[in-house]
């Protein structure tokens, strides 16, 4: 997906920047693509075409779309295993992502990584990591590399409300603040770490304050509102680019589906989920705004629905038609051959 | 076009479930994401969401039906652009298609029938070049420092980070002078935060830098082992070859002196277990320098095991900055005909002492310095055993699942017909390292023990 054409100007959250019409429309389309992709992934999982763990991003789309809206070409992204939305938002091809989910040769990792472990060096997406919290030091290392290379880029490091209780997160916060690394930590607070609510796992539930001891400023953001996310992202990315170091953005969001596909979701009520969907859905909210402010009409939205649906159909077909990896692939990519590197 | 809604599987093990409730009725308009029905398994109640838009034209399985098999059509959804009453499109054969491809149930059988893919032959290792240039007498400590300095001059992507590596000049003075030459952006003091800085180093390596991460001792690498194993070693594989980690983790390994259990253990076997890592453990200063240079240039993560007791020992070291020692090559450090003794790191010196003891008793031992633990240079070991027909493996680490165990397995697989005696293992005693001087000595392999083991395999 395209990134913001110009460097966004930092604005306070209270007074959101005026977002151009074409940007709003693009954000809607990007969120819709993620939603439809994830619904299809859920369906393919139900059909047995996707195996193992599969963590869907439905409900949280505004977070990654809003962050990418404020990012520049060359900024890097890393996240945990709920990663399909991040990959699509980084511009990775839905075909390659879906084919990785089905474990096929056409997948981004040739079928060897699966849902939780996908990467694109070209699109600056550094995974897709399966160990809760491990991506935080890794992403801080991406920020370290930006500073070392003096390339003016920023690392966006996503973590969940569960990961904030991992010790290595604070080791990373300390170094990022100490060395003023260009990093934005994006806590996607969807209220539940698997089945344990933030209230039951965190002493001190305002997660954006977790960096205060290191002097890292934090902000709570309405993660169900793409415009609010974009405004907060622009400010935090600007700080990092100006050499002022890391920021923590706590995105207040919600996942409609279970933690993974096999989650019966007994830890929350159906009414709670339904209320979030009805009153806070990021896609419905933006749709209403687009129509109310006449950025687009119903017909335009319908065409966009069709375009997205076609993309998902193509991805689904590709993901089923692509062959399983050649058995010889079992042994490749364990080590990089020194001779290959020299050549 | 009409589409069939299929009974979904909600976990990899689910085969059937109860359709407990329909939340939409025939004729209802349905949007993607709407909840259509509830299904129950023995474990949970779950919701079935619509993936497509349309009108619910037919309910094929009434609510309350038990034991509905996964992938059974449960309803028909008519597309929005289609006239009412149009014949439902024939199922786009999802069921047979799924069956044919179902990876879970059928994969094991298919695998059992399919011929096992050929494991690629071991890559022949580059021959070690003969060196005839100038040498100087240096300690292992100086050789390691020179290796880092030469590689940092050669490639500005190489940097050193760790606890006390910069201003303190290294806890064991290995990085002496590097801060002065390369400055604080390339020689970086970290907080005491192994898990964090190991992960940070791997992330920097993903984006093309070449970090040297020093652990003050490898004992502290256990704090960081998740990042070493799960992030550094596996990412190239998990990314289909897109994202390697050209990183060196180095520092003293094994027993030092009187520092007891938590500061005295050998990690060779731990890290050698992991595909995606290379593990190097040199003895001499020349090999320390040549192998560290190779490790820094290597595109893969390398575990570089040093030894505090060797830091002050002196050896002749080549002084050509382009001279390196290839990873994956063992070295015969004492030729002999009657018994082969393999060792690595500090134990090479102890094995050479044992060989002297054996010589006095008329036994001619060949001593091999493994130098690299993974990939293991089995060719050199097998060639030696074909000559001597006997092998004694020496290591400081514990015996269980140790390097000696691997050595015994390799001999069974590759030199069984040449063995005149079972492989003997001399290893650290299978206890945490004690503090008391006498107990500590008893816990580590001694030359006399190695000589005794060699005599046993020679039936003397």
Task: Tell me the radius of gyration of chain B.
Answer: 31 Å
Q: Helical segment tally of chain B? A: 14
For the terminal residues of chain A, how far apart are their CA atoms?
33 Å
Average pLDDT number of chain B = 90
Note down, in words, how this protein is organized.
The complex is a heterodimer of chains A (343) and B (460). Chain A has helices at residues 21-46, 61-70, 84-89, 94-101, 135-149, 167-178, 198-201, 226-241, 270-280, 282-292, 298-321, 338-342, and strands spanning 76-79, 125-128, 155-160, 183-189, 192-193, 196-197, 218-222, 247-252. Helix content of chain A is 43%, strand content 10%. The relative contact order of chain A is 0.17. Chain A has a domain at 52-90 and 120-296: Thiamin diphosphate (ThDP)-binding fold, Pyr/PP domains (Rossmann fold, 3-Layer(aba) Sandwich). Chain A has twelve helices and eight strands. Chain A is an alpha/beta fold. The longest helix of chain A is centred in the N-terminal third of the chain and has 26 residues, at 21-46. In chain A, the strands form two sheets. Chain A has a six-stranded parallel beta sheet with strand order 2-1-3-4-8-7, sandwiched between helices. Residues 4-14 of chain A have low confidence and may be disordered. Chain B is elongated, with a radius of gyration of 31 Å. Chain B is built from 14 helices and 22 strands. In chain B, α3 runs parallel beside α9 (285-297), α5 runs parallel beside α6 and α10 (346-360) packs across α14 (447-457). The model of chain B is unreliable at 86-113 (pLDDT under 50). Chain B is of the alpha/beta class and 460 residues long. Chains A and B meet through α1, β2, α5 and α6 of A and β5, α1, α2, α5 and α6 of B.
């Amino acid at each position: 997906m395209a990134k913001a054409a110009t460097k966004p100007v930092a604005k306070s959250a209270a007074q959101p920047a005026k977002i151009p019409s074409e940007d709003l429309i693009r954000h809607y389309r990007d969120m819709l693509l993620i939603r439809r992709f994830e619904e299809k992934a859920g369906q393919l999982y139900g059909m047995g075409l996707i195996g193992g763990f599969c963590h869907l991003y439905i409900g949280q789309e505004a977070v990654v779309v809003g962050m990418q809206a404020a990012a520049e070409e060359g900024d890097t992204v890393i996240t945990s295993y709920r990663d399909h939305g991040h990959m699509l938002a980084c511009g990775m091809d839905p075909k390659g992502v879906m084919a990785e989910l089905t474990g096929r040769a056409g997948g981004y990792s040739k079928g060897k990584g699966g849902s939780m472990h996908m990467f694109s060096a070209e699109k600056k997406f550094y995974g897709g990591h399966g160990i809760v919290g491990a991506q935080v030091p890794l992403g801080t290392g991406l920020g370290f590399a930006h500073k070392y290379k003096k390339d003016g880029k920023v690392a966006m490091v996503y973590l969940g409300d569960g990961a904030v209780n991992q010790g290595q997160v604070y080791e990373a916060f300390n170094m990022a603040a100490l060395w003023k690394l260009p990093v934005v930590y994006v806590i996607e607070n969807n209220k539940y770490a698997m089945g344990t609510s933030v209230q039951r796992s965190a002493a001190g539930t305002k997660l954006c304050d977790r960096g205060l001891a290191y002097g890292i400023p934090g902000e709570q953001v309405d993660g169900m509102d793409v415009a609010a996310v974009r405004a907060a992202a622009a400010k935090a990315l600007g700080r990092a680019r100006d050499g002022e170091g890391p920021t923590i953005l706590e995105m207040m969001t919600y996942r409609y589906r279970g933690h993974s596909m096999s989650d019966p979701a007994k830890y929350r009520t159906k009414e709670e989920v339904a209320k979030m969907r009805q009153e806070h859905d990021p896609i419905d909210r933006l749709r209403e705004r687009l129509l109310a402010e006449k950025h687009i009409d119903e017909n335009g939205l319908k065409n966009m629905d069709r375009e997205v649906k076609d993309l998902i159909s193509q991805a689904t077909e590709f993901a089923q038609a692509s062959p399983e990896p050649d058995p010889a692939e079992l042994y490749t990519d364990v080590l990089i051959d020194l001779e290959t590197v020299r050549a | 076009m009409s589409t069939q809604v299929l009974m979904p599987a909600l976990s990899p093990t689910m085969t059937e479930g109860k359709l407990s409730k329909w939340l939409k009725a025939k004729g209802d308009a349905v949007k993607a994401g709407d909840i259509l029905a509830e299904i129950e398994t023995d474990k949970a109640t779950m919701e079935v969401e619509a993936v497509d838009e349309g009108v619910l034209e037919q309910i094929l399985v009434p609510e309350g039906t038990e034991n509905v098999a996964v992938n059974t059509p449960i309803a028909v959804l008519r597309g929005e652009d289609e006239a009412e009453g149009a014949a439902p499109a024939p199922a786009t054969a999802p069921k047979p298609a799924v069956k044919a491809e179902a990876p879970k149930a059928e994969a094991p059988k298919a695998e059992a029938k399919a011929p096992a893919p050929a494991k690629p032959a071991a890559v022949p290792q580059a021959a070690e070049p003969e060196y005839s240039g100038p040498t100087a007498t240096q300690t292992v400590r100086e050789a390691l420092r020179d290796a880092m300095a030469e590689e940092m001059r050669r490639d500005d992507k190489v940097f050193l980070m760790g606890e006390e590596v910069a201003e303190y000049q290294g806890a064991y003075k290995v990085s002496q002078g590097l801060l002065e030459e390369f400055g604080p952006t390339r020689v970086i003091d970290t907080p005491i935060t192994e898990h964090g800085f190991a992960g940070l180093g791997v992330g920097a390596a993903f984006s093309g830098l070449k970090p040297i991460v020093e652990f003050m001792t490898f004992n502290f690498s256990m704090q960081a082992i998740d990042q070493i194993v799960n992030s550094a070693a596996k990412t190239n594989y998990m990314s289909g070859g897109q994202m390697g980690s050209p990183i060196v983790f180095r520092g003293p390994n094994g027993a030092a002196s009187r520092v007891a259990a938590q500061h005295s253990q050998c990690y060779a076997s731990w890290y050698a277990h992991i595909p995606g890592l290379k593990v190097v453990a040199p003895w001499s200063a020349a090999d320390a320098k040549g192998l560290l240079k190779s490790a820094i240039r290597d595109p893969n993560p390398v575990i570089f095991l040093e030894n505090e007791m060797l830091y002050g020992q002196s050896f002749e070291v080549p002084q050509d900055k382009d001279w390196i020692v290839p990873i994956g090559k063992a070295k015969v450090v004492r030729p002999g005909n009657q018994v082969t003794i393999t060792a690595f790191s500090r134990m090479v010196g102890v094995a050479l002492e044992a060989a002297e003891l054996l010589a006095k008793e008329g036994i001619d031992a060949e001593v091999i310095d493994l130098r690299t633990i993974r990939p293991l240079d089995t060719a050199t070991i097998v060639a030696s055993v074909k000559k001597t027909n006997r092998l004694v493996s020496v290591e400081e680490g514990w015996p269980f699942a140790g390097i000696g165990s691997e050595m015994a397995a390799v001999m069974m697989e590759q030199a069984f017909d040449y063995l005149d005696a079972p492989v003997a293992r001399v290893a650290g005693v299978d206890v945490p390292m004690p503090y008391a001087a006498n107990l500590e000595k008893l816990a580590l392999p001694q030359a006399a023990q190695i000589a005794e083991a060699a005599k046993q395999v020679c039936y003397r």
